[in-house]
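Entry:
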Amino acid sequence: MFPVTIFWEVLFFSAGIWLIERGKLSRFISIILNINLLTLILLPQVYILDDGTTASLALPPAIVTPVSFFFIMMVFLSIASFQHLRGRDVINRKNRVFALVPVPQRSG
């Protein structure tokens, strides 16, 4: 028995993690991979059986809910990483740096 869907989930997850801190195009591809992972988790899992036929099995909600939440967080981290590269925050505002300690101004 070979879990086809799990193979693609692991492949997309590892590629998404690998691409999350690279260039702009790679980060965008990471967002797409993580969204595709979420759809694969929600669909029934497909297995290739020993006799060449396939079987599908829907995961119970007790498993799908936390796993789906994890992949939603991965999509959020991918978007945040992409926006950080652009110099923006998650809701597309320009990043501003605030000092916790006042910086003394030069006079003159």
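The first helix runs from residue 4 to 19.
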